[in-house]
Amino acid sequence: MAQFVDWDLATATAGALAKSGPRVSYDEATEVVADLRRLTDEAAEHVAAYTGLRSQVEHPPVRVVDRRDWAATNVAGLRQVITPLVGRLTGDKQPGALTDAIGSRLTGVQAGTVLAYLSGRVLGQYEVFSADPGQLLLVAPNIVETERKLAADPHDFRLWVCLHEVTHRTQFTAVPWLRGHFLGEVQAFVDASQAGGENFLNRLRRGVATLAEAIRDPESRTSVLDIVQTPGQRAVLDRLTALMTLLEGHAEFVMDGVGPEVVPSVEEIRAKFNRRREAGNPLEKAIRKLLGVDVKMRQYAEGRKFVHGVVDRVGMTGFNKIFSSPLTLPRLTELADPDAWVTRVHGPVAPMSDAD
What we know:
The protein is mainly alpha-helical. The chain has helices spanning about 5-15, 25-50, 65-90, 95-120, 140-150, 155-175, 180-190, 195-215, 225-230, 235-260, 265-280, 280-290, 295-320, 340-345; strands at about 60-65, 125, 135-140. The protein has a 3-stranded mixed beta sheet, with helices on both faces.
């Protein structure tokens, strides 16, 4: 089978380039890991009570990882999904041993470079690719480094992060069809390439190369989506964008809803964290644009506003109907118009009063 990425080389490159974490003693590191595991369990109870959603998995998975482990886990997940898709797109056609080896190794180095950069930025992630139902990853060195930079109370900041990430875990473990639907949309995005399998893979390789080059050269301004996306993929991308905006906005809404009750310094943490999101040196700003992080920031705000609007109109139980099936997920146009979603799914309803 043609190999799109030399995955082993991607893992090795990410591990070699990933920056070391903040200086901590062995005892401190052990304490952080135990604390994050305990706060994950605490956050799960808060999220369940606030949202009315409960995991249908007996022991929802969580792993506290370092930067290299985070990169390796993401490589493994992407490999599991992308390898069979590449085989199907190319008909398992071999492009030639030399071409395959050079292309896959180059892409492996480039992918590893991107993952090394991201491994120093991500606080937590619900990784859906590697195994059913996915797994929650908390990147301990990044959490510690960020709480120190923000001069935040460690307990409060860690619980605040856990509230957000556990909400994502709850979404995927309380809604049985959601992971399969998400993976199906990712597959549909690949299938929607109109230019043929090999051309799509070439575009995807150019996209990875663009990201890697931007890390080395912050003056680069090429749009990765413009390289990878074809007209036939835009409809799929709209659905994926709507879904991710919903999930991110829901997590932000829950974090802000639960936070004031259980995180005493939440207002200070939120203000400092938002300033951190908006700040950054020129390199970081260029990378954020190319990686779509700027889009993700808008998703946080737009998604939170949509969820707030729906809950205001039909309450949390009414909002949870959004997870009934793929047909009740919001359309991209509805994210800016909660009334449109409420009318489509619930029919015309009167605004809720304070007593409701």
